[in-house]
Batch of 2 targets.
Target 1
Amino acid sequence: MTSHFWNWPWKFKQNNLIFLSLVIVGFSIEYFSGKAGVKAPAFPLNFYGLVGFTIFSTVLFYLPFSQRYIRWTLSFQFVITAVTWMGLLSVLSGFLPQGQSALPLFFEKIALSSVTSSVPYVILIVLICQSLIFACLKKLSAFSFYQIPFLLNHLGLYIIFTTALLGSGDLIRLKMDLNKGQPEWRGYQHQFGKKVELPFALRLENFEMDVYPPKLLVVNRKNGGILKDFLIFPEGKNDFLKELKLKDWDIRFEQFYSDAFQVDDHFVPVKHVGTAPAMKLEVTDKVHQTKVSGWIGSGSYIFPAKVLNVSDEFAVALANPQPKEYRSRVSFFTPDGRKGEFLLRVNQPYDLDGWKIYQYGYDEQKGQWSNLSRVEVIRDPWLPAVYMGIYMLMAGTLLMLIVKRKND
Amino acid sequence: MIEATLYNFLPWVTVLGLGLSILAFLLKFNKLGLILNIAAIAVLGSCIYFLWKWLGRPPLKTLGETRLWYSFFLPALGLIIYRKIQEKWIVIYSSGMGILFLMLNIFKPDNFDKTLMPALQSIWFVPHVIVYILAYALLGVSSLYAFIALFRFYILKKDTFDTTVKTITSFVHAGISLLTLGLLFGALWAKEAWGHYWTWDPKETWAFITWLSYLNYLHAEAKGEKRAKLAVTFLAFNFVILLVCWFGVNYLPTANDSVHTYGN
């Protein structure tokens, strides 16, 4: 019998050719369809899709005429090739800027700025999912306890891929700008885009921020660039440093106010909206043999920052204090008359009627005096399914760590 | 003063200890080398402990701080492998790597930044980063073996692929398990902090690519002696991908889009 390129067994050459063709076909579909990327359908279609795909793959596994296909997707070369091509496409996503308007129009048309939701990527995921479920079915036919880590890992990954991909059809992620005292019931995806009505209203009652003490900056007077920054509050002490000895300068700190208002060229300590940190210091320039003394302030949205010029080249300034923690006190109202209040913190979202509300940001111009709280509201009904996959994969991974393998 | 001790003096003592240890091993004073190595690692361990206390937060935020942990775990792992196989060059190599990362810290220091931004104040912060550092250390040590096996094959014409795989397989498995856990911890943390468990942030994307590359190793290794050369080749190549994920992301065109760049 003459040897033929497509005779079984298929090696890496054949597999790579198939995957290359699939990827080319995928990008061509992207180009001709005009729509960049694949969007999963909403419920119930995505659910039927998941159930249908799983049942179809299971049936396919046992039918006689599909055995060659099964054998191929379970082959070593298939797995390596598929994983490698998925890696290659992901590299494109990791290299090229992603998102809208990130790349020239042609690249956007063939979904190179949204690789991970593109047709070729989805084709790869579908094939890999088939392989995963076939591998599980094969192991199940000769079940033993040693196979539990394998099953957890492969089935877990299958569940993560399918539920994350299909679940995205029901995922809603919107941002809301809550201005103090004003109820807001609309969310948006893009700042100047369409606003979407939500089944609840939120009102910011109060926004609070705790800040770290500001840093001292050495600034280049010609271009405003920051050369170095220094901490002026040593760890564990509530009092500021009294002096800082640098290579060319000796700095003596005389006074610090965490909240002050500028009056002429000095500062008055006041706790009021729009005040900012200020520091009185004296800088001795050892190189030029000069000494300057005065106030510096971080400035706020009400008055500009104040710097102290030390020489023709350099000045000292006070940086804006960095946020330590910020939180919003928010009231909510629902159409059926319920209302309540909650405290929203970063890393601590709030659950409301199947929506999760996250502290996202604030008015950074005003900093700690912000009257705006930015929140993100998310509805992800498929999340428990994805989590199930994640925990299965974690369990399989931990078992791999702890349990010795049969052939160790 | 305390900054100079933590960021200069103690690391230098560690570098000296590791360096003398390497010298002792090369001159065949193995026992002395072992003692010096353990002492150096202990000094670095105490340095990390005092740094943690001084900063008031886990020293895991900046690149320099993660290098410190790498310099700790890598020689420590080298010692564990040495105990198993009694080959001194693994201690020499892992100590050398430890010295390299410590020198990087000494000559290219981070700013002494004590601030921990709100998003990092989470119970997931420490497990996510520690698990990744451990994984990187394990996979780094294993990749050393891989490079040596490839060197032996192509330059010395000796096939040691099967024995290499058998020697380091438990370390690679541990490394890959930790890599998987790190990825999943990151996803669970992302859900709590940023609203979604996966956003294809460049660091996430490269972490995923790194994870995929080690899947290739696992499947090749499962095939035994037949695919030992491929497995070892994957191991060596994957480490490059790992380095891109660890350091390279900050220099790629997509760096600005990442939530992982603020720490550096």
Note: Chain B has a mean pLDDT of 86.
Target 2
Amino acid sequence: MVRDRCYHLGSIDDLKQIEASLPKPLHLFHANRSEEVLSYWDSFDWRLYQTGLLLLSSSKEIRLFKEKDGGLFLLTQADLPRASPFFSWDLKAGEMRQSLEAVVDARALCLLMKVRLKREFLQVINEDNKTVVRLFVDEYKMKKNSAQCHLLPRLGIETLRGYEEEAQAIADLLISMGHAAVQSSPYEEALELLSVSPKAYSSKVKIKMNADDSSAEVVRALIAASLHIIKKNTDGILADIDTEFLHDQRVAIRRLRSLIGQLDGVFSSEIHHRFKSEFGELSRMSNAVRDLDVWLLEKDAYRTLVPPVLLGGLNIFFKEIKSRRQAEHRRLLEMMQRKKFHKLLEEWERFCQEPSFPKGKCADQGIRALAESRLKKSFAKICKEGQRIDENTPDEEIHRLRLQCKKLRYLFEFFASLFSENHLEQMLAQLKQLQNHLGAFNDLHVQQVWLEDALHSIKKGSEVSAAIGALMGAMYQQQLSAKKLIFGDIRTFIGADTRELMKKLLAQGKK
Amino acid sequence: MKIIAIYSMKGGVGKTASAVNLAYLAAKSGLRTLLCDLDAQGSASYYFRVRAEGKHSFKLIWTKAKKFRSEIRASDYPNLDILPSSFSYRNLDQLLEKRKKSKKVLAKLLNSIRDDYDMVILDCPPNLTLLAENVFICADAVAVPVIPTTLSELTLQQLVEFFISAELDMKKLMPFFAMQQSAKKLHREVREKLKDFHPTFLKQSIPFLSEVEQMGVTREPVGVTQASSRAAQAYSALWQELSDRVQGHSS
């Protein structure tokens, strides 16, 4: 309802004029005031913001709001956890925990800003001394670089049942006096004032390109964007805020490596060679930490796979993993704080900016033509390998198929803007199903190998070895199931429908 | 949604004061509450400073559910809305007589707001009419304030006989003593006599208290201006007993 909006005031003094302008016989009554310091929370990648949600805390409570037209609607509240940053699992089981878990998953919720809210409640009274409209005036103050700054005060109208006309009259009065209805929540305004932009970070590279753009220029732009993601996540990794900083960074590296690997001929072979070696090393640097992170993230799920009598042994195993993880993380920090690491990133940044650089034979080719040829090649490989897959296919071949699918997917993602959105969406949906099962299969394989390895260093017959054995057994069964699903998926994927779709997707004339 | 009517065949027994205080307590306990002022005198509406819409004839309000709903006004208290009456309500019976299913008009209207409220309190006019029958039929409880005097005994008996002849559910009838003055011997005697008279006679009662009279001046429920007074406590206890009875009944 238009009535129940907030309106910006030029200053708090505007209230006097509004009071004086109230249509007779209405008058204003100043009721109580309140003051609170509110903290605003979100994950590093602004997941709550992206979902239209707001998480605010006062001294003891956190409250989750849905934002709409600048107004906030309370969804749920809970006790504020002690930790800062905190995770959804730091909350007691309940609606808040469930809601946050669904949106932020393994990401930490970080304190992004503190705001002081002064609120005054007002009542519009009629000649019978009846309250006909409820108002409130909010003043928000924040600190920016140790200086105080504030938002424009907001006047909110609350319509009372049966007095809709009076509320509308107040709204009309405000508009006639030049006060505009707010468009965004006060927190959005505050973020803007503090120059903190939710749009500044995305874990995905999304660059718009035209079919005729020179391939080399486009790829340089993609490298630059990827480097940006790598750099942005570094601080979070160093501070060890949550596991996803490293994950996002690794994914950016992985995607970029796949791209440069598949687009050979864009730069000179020396450049491609240097890239492969340097980014390969960059990627391997964090393998150990990520492997251990994944174990720890999944530990609750693994506990359910093992008979309760063996849980003791499993817990010991996880304790061991935890301390190994901390040790590996320390090593990673050391490496990331070295000059070598920073120099590497700087050099490649410079490569992307330099007016001239060592080109390859495809450098000046239109990007659309190049992308098409690589996509065709990648897809053909999948079809060829996919046809050979059956129950007797060794695991290694299935892993190769998985890697092939990833390559295809990354190409689609980088070059999305060159193709029809509709067709691309369909293609990616098909790929996703297959990739999910391939991924699960691979994870299980990797974990079993890992466990087998662990077994060697553990006393035979100990409770830990028994727990590991049970876990391996459960995983083996899951792997067999995943394999069956993969057969179905691959049949569908290399079928006539997908080939048709691929043809349509790559057809000339689109964009 | 439950419906509690505050009804008496006699005037001046503290009916409206009870309706106002009980509605306030219902709202305070978290129930979305509507107080319907069915009395043309409009005392309940006066307490809450709410007026009926001047333009519309009460006819529309009582025939169209949408108009009925649009007459509802928020009170100054959370969870409590008021449906005000107007002087034109003195002709309500005539209107009801003309309708088909003339005894179920109120039930139908209240049914249209079933999803909006948890509790409806009806402040009824002091007469035994078609409107009263509408009230008796749709209410889950008919709370009757009774001043413990001999004449009140007779009036209560008349009401009981009416219920029997109209084949109404006697379990709904919940009299309670109001404006009670324990110092008066007559009050004590009548009270002693009547308390076992009817199985659903409420145990809690409202003494004669000046705070209740003061309501006409302050125009607020006693729970607001004098939260720790005897009057506030008495109504609290009465509300507790009444709401327990009503929630206990399944209907």
Note: The longest strand of chain A covers residues 27-42.
